[in-house]
Amino acid sequence: YLLAGTLDFWPRGTVFVSVVDPGVGTPRKSVVAHTASGHFIVTPDNGSLTLVADTQGIVALREIDESVNRRPGSGDSHTFHGRDVYAYTGAKLAAGKISFEQVGPQLGTEVVRLDYQQAGTVDGAAVVGNITHIEMPFGNVVTNIPQSLLDGLSVAAADQRPVRVEISHAGKPVLQQTIPYVPAFGYVGTGQPLLYSDSLQMIGLAVNSGNYSRQYKVRSGADWRIRIVINPSDSDMPADR
Predict the structure, then answer these.
(1) Which of 222, 218, 123, 127 is nearest to 181 (CA)?
(2) Which of the 8 DSSP states describes residue 221?
């Protein structure tokens, strides 16, 4: 999420090194992705390119040839590829010491993908999506639902109208509550929950001067699903549960 949200703020040709690599030292591929937005990402191909593929698109992918693109003398190091392979290759590419074509053999444009709930509308009455991450240390819950989906349903934060939020984990209900959709945290009282659009115009959940994730025991990941009902009925208005 953070990688995909960052790319467009940097000029075409920028080289990013992104290392979230629990599989370091295993046969997972080390790659450089060339995005349709004109950026290069040096990273393990383990799912971290999922949202980049969905938002910016990937036009070319090359596997890093470690026989030439690896820190000299690091062949016996198996647990620090961020230093030995990714930073080294990224620096060479950014400095013009190698071209993209010299990274290594070309692969297809398909990357390893995480299976998650993509954002969308449901019968014009709700939107669904995935909880992508928790903003730390604040505990704000970030989703992959763009503000444009609510805009398309004529729902604006400026109206401060209530919406029904339903969160589930692995198919099991975790939380149901009716909260206001507002422009910023201070539109509700201290300690009160809210729905808002963040700096990347993605829908999020927060508690004014509090920690939503901790207070409501909500986490993030591919199996965390959120549904936002646009016009909750009076029967949907009881206290949080």
Answers:
(1) 127
(2) S
pTM over 0.70: yes
Over residues 96-135, the pLDDT tens digits come to: 999 999 999 999 999 999 988 899 999 889 999 999 999 9
What type of residue sits at position 214? R
Give the ranges where the chain is alpha helix by DSSP (H). Answer: 2-7, 50-55, 81, 88-94, 147-152, 212-216
Locate all alpha helices (DSSP H) within 104-178, ordered by sequence. Answer: 147-152
| Residue 21 near residue 87 (C-beta atoms within 8 A) | no
Side-chain-side CA neighbours of residue 161 (13 Å): 13
Residue 162 has pLDDT above 70, yes or no: yes
End-to-end CA distance of the chain: 29
Residue pair 62/104 in contact by the 8 Å Cβ criterion:
yes
